[in-house]
Structures are given as C-alpha cells and as structure tokens.
C-alpha cells in the first residue's frame, strides 16, 4: 500500500491510498491527484539527514568517505509536497538538488539494534534535500545551507516496505534530463545501520524521516526547472522551481504541524 495525505475539494485533510491506477482513494471516494492538494505524506518532528553516504558523491565533492554516518537536521519548516512550487533563497548563486531515499519511522524509538530496525519502519518515500551551497560552505551547522523554508520536498506517498526492493533504484531528473541515477544498494551505511546509529543519541518519533544521502550527479537549479525524484516501489515526487522573488513566499499552513 502507498499511503497519501491530501486535501479534498471540500478542504478536509484525508489519508488514503495512491493506487496503481493513479487514483487517490479515501473510503469509497476516488480523486484525481491533479485535482486535489497533495500534502507531505508524514508530519515529522524532524528530518535526520545523512551526508556523504554514496562513494561516488564523496568523490565528486572531493571528500573522504566518513568512518561513521555524518548527520544533520532539517526542521518541519523545510517540508514541501509533491506538486509544490519552491522559491529559491534570495541572493544565492548555487542551490543544488539531492535525490534521497527517505525512511519514515513508525513508532517512537531509542537504542534500536540493527537486527530490529525493520520493526520501527513505517515505510519509504522520496526526498529532495535542497542545498544552498553558498552558505553551506561558510558554516558548520548548515542552518542556512540546509534548513531554509521548503528545503525538503517529500512524497508523494509512504510506501509499505514490502513493495520496495532492497536494491531499489533512485533517479532524479531536471526538465526530463537524468541527473542522478543509482541504487540504495550503493549506500555506504545501510538503513539498519543508520537507524541504530541515530537512535543511540536521538529519540525518533512516529512520522520522523531519515534522508539517507544522495548519489553523485548533483547540480544547480534555476528558475523554471521541474525536478522529479523517483524511487522504485514508491513513485515519483515532482516539484517546480522559481527564482527568488518570483513567488509570493507566503507561509502555506498546510505544512505546519497541528494545522
């Protein structure tokens, strides 16, 4: 099953199923995905991101392969959804795409051993870890570089783990051109290793997301670009990009917790 959150034409937020026929179902009702507002499929308290978790990406950035997972956080303010239009941060020369395999946590957990990691996984999703390189290169904590508003498009669904292959393909296109293409089989640190390492110090809550790192092929985004992240067994997360100042920038309360 692929669970989806959306706002129906009456304005009610629903959690339903995205079927193989590209219909959204809630009970006996059916909806066209293009005629509703698709929401982020989870409402995380945090997104735990992993840096340099593909050897080829470490190589393209002239970085050493880490001895342990490199971790940083994105807050709920970074959420964006399938179909959204995202405004680039103002005054920045380079904002890159980063396609990532997202792990959605199903229950509050701490100190999870690797051999029990599957027990705390609700499912998998697509993530685009948008990255403002101008500021990322200037600071250690990466708030400006990684945690600006709408810097984490997620979705369109949370797919049941049994439908996602262990070597699931991950691909990103910009305007139809393939930029990133790899497999989660190429992760340096596996999903069980990441869950075990993260939960040694951090309690993960139900709905939290682990963004497991990006393959090689990162490149800058520009006004007018359409980005699509596809994970085998999950589906495709698509969103548009506009230049700074081209979008209203108004807060969209769909993505705020408890709304």
The tally of strands reads: 19
CATH topology of the largest domain: Fumarylacetoacetate hydrolase, domain 2
Given as residue ranges, the uncertain stretches (5+ residues, pLDDT < 50) are 247-259
Distance between the termini: 26 Å
* Biggest beta-sheet profile: 12 strands, mixed
Taken together, the total number of domains comes to 2
Characterize the overall form: globular
CATH architecture type of the largest domain: Alpha-Beta Complex
Strand percentage, roughly?
35-45%
Query: CATH-wise, what's the superfamily of the largest domain?
Result: Fumarylacetoacetase-like, C-terminal domain
Question: Any idea of the CATH class of the largest domain?
Answer: Alpha Beta
Average pLDDT metric:
94
Helix percentage range: under 10%
* Rg from Cα: 17 Å
Total helices: the number is 4
Helices and strands, in order, run as EEEEEEHEEEEEEEHHEEEHEEE
Q: Determine the structural class based on helices, strands and strand pairing.
A: mainly beta
């Amino acid at each position: 099953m692929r669970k989806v959150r959306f706002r129906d034409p009456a304005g009610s937020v629903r959690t339903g199923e995205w079927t193989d026929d590209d219909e959204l179902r809630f009970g006996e009702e059916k909806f066209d995905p293009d005629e509703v507002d698709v929401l982020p499929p989870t409402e995380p308290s945090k997104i735990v991101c992993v840096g340099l978790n593909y050897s080829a990406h470490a190589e393209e950035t002239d970085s050493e392969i880490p001895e342990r997972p490199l971790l940083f956080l994105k807050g709920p303010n970074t959420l964006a959804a399938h179909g959204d239009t995202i405004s680039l941060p103002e005054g920045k020369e380079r904002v890159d795409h980063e396609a990532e395999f997202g792990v959605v946590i199903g229950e509050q957990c701490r100190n999870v051993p690797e051999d029990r990691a599957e027990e705390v996984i609700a499912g998998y999703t697509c993530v685009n870890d948008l990255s403002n390189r101008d500021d990322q290169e200037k600071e250690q904590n990466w708030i400006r570089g990684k945690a600006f508003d709408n810097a984490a498009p997620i979705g369109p669904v949370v797919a049941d783990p049994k439908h996602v292959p262990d070597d699931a393909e991950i691909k990103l296109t910009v305007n139809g051109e393939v930029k990133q293409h790899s497999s989660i089989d190429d992760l340096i640190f596996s999903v069980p290793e990441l869950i075990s390492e993260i939960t040694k110090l951090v309690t993960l809550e139900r709905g939290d997301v682990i963004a497991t790192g990006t393959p090689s092929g990162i490149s800058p985004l520009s006004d007018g670009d359409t980005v699509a992240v596809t994970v085998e067994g999950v589906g495709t997360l698509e969103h548009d990009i506009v230049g700074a100042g081209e979008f209203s920038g108004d807060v969209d309360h769909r993505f705020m917790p408890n709304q």
